[in-house]
Design brief:
This protein is α/β, with parallel strands linked by helices. 41% of the residues lie in helices and 18% in strands.
Length: 317
């Protein structure tokens, strides 16, 4: 299978090759060390031209430039897996550039796209300088937004997949599954797979597992990740990911039961999971900047587990 992945250095592909690519993953380059490759936008070109996720506000022009470079002069729909600012922050700029396009998102996210002030404040509170690097999202006109419950596009299945976020959606379109972060973050490092849960607070493991089960009911198909790439078999990857979540629950749960300061528990769990989770083995061969990025996101994912498990244990006392 041809790897359908374009970076800014790969835009020299000839038009004939581009015409034969129905799906493309376009990397959205970032200025932060360790964040390349990490952000991507999937492009589907057929009867309809679709984009799945559009990245942060501060790099909207880079995505637009890449789309222009492949000759994409029309976008019919932008599908947001969720409204976090690293996935939907550039939406207003993309809709401005493609005035014929509309965006599909979870019905509960629409108010935060129309007035992103609370979304931005929450992002600053949780992410701090990282949010500032992504940039503040601009308001989107409500008439450009379609609630997921009113979406009826041919060949498109919208699946509610809460877990990474309560408003998370996945999409199956013409035998390809676009999962955003509902199946973790997937990278290939020197040919070695790397899979990491994206489970920031507030995290609910039971909802996440039900979402994975919902995706496993679908036919096996290629699975496309927001961060960053694709794999041939959705069932295989989803089952691996499901087992990984259960492993994280066991390891983090044991540390929580032992007690102690939450930040100490999180730091210990990062090292313990890097040692015991085989899906993280490629960490050892990553560049130091990428390792630093991954440790930040690992810690945030572990924090989601710790808070979930402490709340769960408290409710059973």
């Amino acid at each position: 299978m041809l790897v359908k992945f374009l970076t800014s250095n790969a835009l020299r592909l000839t038009p004939s090759i581009l015409d034969n690519m129905r799906e493309l993953l376009i990397e959205i380059k970032q200025d932060m060390p360790g964040f390349n490759p990490f952000f991507g936008s999937w492009v589907c070109r057929d009867d309809l031209n679709l984009l799945i996720d559009v990245g942060p506000a501060n790099t909207a022009n880079r995505l637009i430039d890449s789309l222009v470079s492949i000759g994409l002069d029309r976008v019919d729909y932008i599908l947001l897996t969720h409204i976090h600012i690293d996935h939907g922050g550039a939406l207003a700029d993309l809709l401005d550039y493609y005035p014929m396009a509309k965006a599909i998102c979870h019905e509960k996210g629409i108010k935060h796209l129309v007035d992103p002030s609370n979304l931005w404040a929450g992002s600053l509170s949780v992410l701090g300088d990282l949010a500032r690097s992504y940039g503040p999202p601009k308001p989107v006109a409500k008439e450009r937004l379609i609630p997921h419950t009113e979406c009826n596009l041919k060949d498109l299945m919208v699946i509610e997949t809460p877990g990474h976020a309560l408003h998370h959606l996945s999409y199956s379109y013409k035998d390809r599954l676009f999962v955003g972060e509902a199946a973790g973050n997937y990278l290939t490092v020197n040919g070695l797979d790397y899979l990491r849960p994206a489970t920031p607070p507030r995290f609910f493991l039971d909802l996440f597992l039900k979402s994975i089960d919902r995706l496993l009911v679908l036919e096996d198909q290629p699975i496309c990740y927001a961060h960053f790439g694709e794999a041939s078999n959705s069932h295989r990857m989803l089952n691996i990911f499901r087992d990984q979540l259960i492993l994280w629950e066991a390891i983090i749960g044991e540390m929580v039961r032992r007690g102690g300061n939450k930040e100490d528990i999180i730091r210990s769990c990062v090292e313990l999971l890097l040692e015991k989770d085989p899906n993280l083995a490629a960490f050892s061969i990553m560049d130091p900047d990428i390792q630093a990025r991954e440790k930040v996101f690992m810690a945030n994912g572990i924090r989601g587990f710790v808070e979930f498990l402490k709340e769960k244990n408290h409710s059973t006392i």
